[in-house]
């Protein structure tokens, strides 16, 4: 038989031809891009990353200055992107599940409102929603000097057109004792959880497992908080001001508000103390600030993506066969148990793959930050490009960074998906990688015969 | 078996049901005694499935009374729960839980509803699997079993709740011919063990072998009832509907 009519040879030959053509094309492309860039004196390099960035990043004043390097600016941008994603994914999931269940509600009003909102959100562009939210809601808030403080004086929430500020919880030296006692409580709670689980399995007795565990953990936590607050606070404090040290009475210094946050923590009576935001001129000091652009981007992404998640949740629950519910009812299972033991485990199987896609969409859509000048990964990168003309190297960095973020999300979702897969007659139990490698060496390289195990 | 009011475990009195304008059950009155095996037959769309689904409230009847073991079936959720705990049901499409193993399918309700311990529920489950002759499949998933095996698991799952009454809704209609036999064998064993059974089925052999009574449904009514011997006797006197149906199947 001629070699060229042998099916096995043709298959291998065609693959080799394809690989050769592909890599030849790739090499030609890279060479032509490189030579064109070199001719314009733009040879890609990463050397500039160590140099002074020279631009400010809004909202990052406390930990980044224009004197930092481009690399530092890039990392700040990445952190901002991750802040959006890390807050966005869980909140989107919860909101999406709630709205998805509303879509299935038997109450006409609830269902109609949910349907209307979901349709509006799904059928208008995210960019438009982002702008609308930013300009109509956020920028309509009063300027800093007229900030809305809730409640007035020692606010738990400050709203203005620069963003929002929450109070800060800071740990005092007493926190260590509280933490130790609270951890003991968690340990006792965990022991109760597992022991009561065993008793329930063994005897079928009814034990309020969740409530019992919560009561132990919270109870011991409160006890620890009280115990840590028992020792009396110092009456005087030594402070360093203008190079000299002086001893002042705590009560006076608190009234006159002359202590730094650290000093206030050291004289506080409780393991945690709250630092209220205070306006100082045109900005707020203390507290946790969130810039207006961060809020606009995060909230818009959450609302937009949650509309899609809601549809996915609705479809997933609808996809569970009605017979499953009938069988559960015939067996006498209550509605809650039917939902948690029968419907949801099967719905999740349908929900998780498209949910992963929505997670990826949220992560990638966060690059719309540039439209409202939120300093995310992409916005900072475009600034760097404008300053240094290093288009190819910066875009390469940006793409690799987004790729790593997306692949991490996809990997986690694939892992979760694998855990919910149904076992059927066609299910192939996947052996671990090292075992499959061993099989490959055995059967293909060493040519040992296959053995059924 | 003769039925008298005293030993009747299921009493239906003038039960009526509509799907919108469609009158699906018309004045269905019947009494079923303990340990009686009743076979329900009739053309498709005659209301026979709807009838047995009304008995454990998978469907709601709009008029008439259904009383199971002395408990009236109405809108009272407690009565519904009490009646469901006395009735096991086997479906045409098995309706096993595909995400749980065979053993978990059988032990789920005894552990969650009857609050049995895992050890006890699993011991019972294995006994039942012996009874339906597939103990070796205990740790497989439903998707790994044949249709006949799945239906036998479904029977074991219903029996695990120790019901007084078993309802079978066309249990063999979705099965290949060679698998019908294995399921019917299990059902015959069950009938001989003294279980009260109502079976909607097209298996006339089953009806003749273990049935005590045959109910013939047509257009939502019980047109004719009788022992299998008289019902399947073509020379006996029959309603014209029954005769037409028997001519088709015999």
How would you characterize this protein structure?
The complex is a heterodimer of chains A (453) and B (250). By secondary structure, chain A is an alpha+beta fold. Among the domains of chain A are: 3-39; 70-166 and 290-419, MetI-like fold (Orthogonal Bundle), CATH 1.10.3720.10; 422-453, no CATH class. Chain A has 14 helices and ten strands. Chain A has helices at residues 7-39, 70-103, 108-122, 126-138, 175-203, 209-229, 250-256, 261-267, 292-318, 322-330, 335-365, 377-388, 391-420, 433-445, and strands at residues 148-150, 157-160, 163-166, 168-171, 236-241, 244-249, 272-275, 278-280, 283-285, 288-291. A four-stranded antiparallel β-sheet of chain A has the order 1-2-3-10. Chain A has a two-stranded antiparallel sheet with strand order 4-7. In chain A, a hairpin with a 6-residue loop joins β1 (148-150) and β2. In chain A, 22% of the residues are buried. Chain B is α/β, with parallel strands linked by helices and 250 residues long. Chain B contains nine helices and ten strands. A six-stranded mixed β-sheet of chain B has the order 6-7-8-3-9-10, with helices on both faces. A four-stranded antiparallel β-sheet of chain B has the order 2-1-4-5, covered by helices on one side. In chain B, β1 (8-19) and β2 (22-33) form a beta hairpin. Chain B is globular and about 55 Å long. The interface between A and B is medium-sized, with 30 and 35 residues.
């Amino acid at each position: 038989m001629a070699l060229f009519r042998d099916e096995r040879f043709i298959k291998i030959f065609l693959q080799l031809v394809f690989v050769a053509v592909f890599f030849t094309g790739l090499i030609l492309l890279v060479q032509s891009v490189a030579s064109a860039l070199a001719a314009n004196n733009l040879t890609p390099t990463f050397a500039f990353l160590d140099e002074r960035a020279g631009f400010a990043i809004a909202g990052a004043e406390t930990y980044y200055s224009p004197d930092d390097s481009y690399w530092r600016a890039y990392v700040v941008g990445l952190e901002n992107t991750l802040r959006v994603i890390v807050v966005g994914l869980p909140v989107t999931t919860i909101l999406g599940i709630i709205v998805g269940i509303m879509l299935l509600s038997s109450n006409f009003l609830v269902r109609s409102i949910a349907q209307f909102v979901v349709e509006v959100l799904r059928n208008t562009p995210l960019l438009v929603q982002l702008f609308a939210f930013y300009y109509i809601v956020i920028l309509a808030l009063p300027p800093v000097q007229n900030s809305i403080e809730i409640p007035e004086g020692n606010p738990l929430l400050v709203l203005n057109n620069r963003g929002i500020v929450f109070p800060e919880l800071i740990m005092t030296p007493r926190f260590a004792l509280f933490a130790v006692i609270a951890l003991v409580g968690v340990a006792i709670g965990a022991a109760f959880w597992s022991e009561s689980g065993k008793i329930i399995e063994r005897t079928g007795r009814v034990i309020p497992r969740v409530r019992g565990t919560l009561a132990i953990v919270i109870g011991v936590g409160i006890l620890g908080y009280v115990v840590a607050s028992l020792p009396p606070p110092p009456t005087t404090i030594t402070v360093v001001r203008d190079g000299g040290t002086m001893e002042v009475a705590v009560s006076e210094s608190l009234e006159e508000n002359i202590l730094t946050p650290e000093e206030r923590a050291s004289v506080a009576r409780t393991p945690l103390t709250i630092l209220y935001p205070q306006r100082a001129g045109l900005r707020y000091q203390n507290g946790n600030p969130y810039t207006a652009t961060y809020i606009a981007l995060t909230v818009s992404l959450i609302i937009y993506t949650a509309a899609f998640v809601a549809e996915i949740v609705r479809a997933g629950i609808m996809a569970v066969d009605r017979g499953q519910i009938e069988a559960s009812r015939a067996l006498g299972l209550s509605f809650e148990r039917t939902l948690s033991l029968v419907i949801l485990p099967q719905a999740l199987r349908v929900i998780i793959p498209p949910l992963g896609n929505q997670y990826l969409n949220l992560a990638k859509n966060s690059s719309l930050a540039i439209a409202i000048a939120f300093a995310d990964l992409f916005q900072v990168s475009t600034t760097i490009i404008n300053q240094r003309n290093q288009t190819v190297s910066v875009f390469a960095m940006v793409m690799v960074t987004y790729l790593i973020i997306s692949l991490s999300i996809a990997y986690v979702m694939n892992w979760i998906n694998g855990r919910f897969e149904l076992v059927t007659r066609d299910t192939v139990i996947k052996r671990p990688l090292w075992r499959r490698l061993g099989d490959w060496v055995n059967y293909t390289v060493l040519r040992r015969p296959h053995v059924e195990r | 078996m003769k039925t008298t009011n005293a030993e009747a475990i299921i009493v239906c009195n003038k039960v009526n049901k509509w799907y919108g304008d469609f009158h699906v059950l018309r004045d269905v009155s019947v009494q079923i005694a303990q340990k009686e095996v009743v076979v329900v037959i009739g053309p498709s769309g005659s209301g026979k499935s709807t009838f047995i689904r009304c008995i454990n409230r998978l469907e709601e009847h709009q008029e008439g009374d259904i009383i199971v073991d002395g408990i009236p079936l109405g809108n009272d959720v407690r009565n519904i729960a009490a009646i469901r705990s006395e009735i096991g049901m086997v479906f045409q499409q098995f309706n096993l839980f595909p995400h749980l193993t065979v053993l978990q399918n059988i032990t789920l309700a005894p552990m969650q509803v009857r609050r049995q311990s895992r050890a006890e529920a699993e011991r019972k489950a294995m006994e039942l699997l012996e009874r339906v002759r597939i103990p070796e499949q205990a740790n497989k998933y439903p998707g790994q079993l044949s249709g006949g095996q799945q239906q036998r698991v479904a029977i074991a799952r219903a029996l695990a709740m120790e019901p007084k009454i078993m309802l079978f809704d066309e249990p063999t209609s979705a099965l290949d011919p060679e698998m019908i036999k294995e399921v019917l064998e299990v059902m015959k064993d069950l009938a001989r063990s003294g279980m009260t059974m109502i079976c909607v089925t097209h298996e006339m052999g089953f009806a003749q072998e273990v049935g005590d009574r045959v109910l013939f449904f047509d257009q939502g009514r019980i047109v004719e009832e009788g022992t299998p011997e008289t019902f399947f006797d073509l020379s006996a006197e029959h309603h014209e509907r029954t005769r037409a149906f028997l001519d088709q199947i015999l």
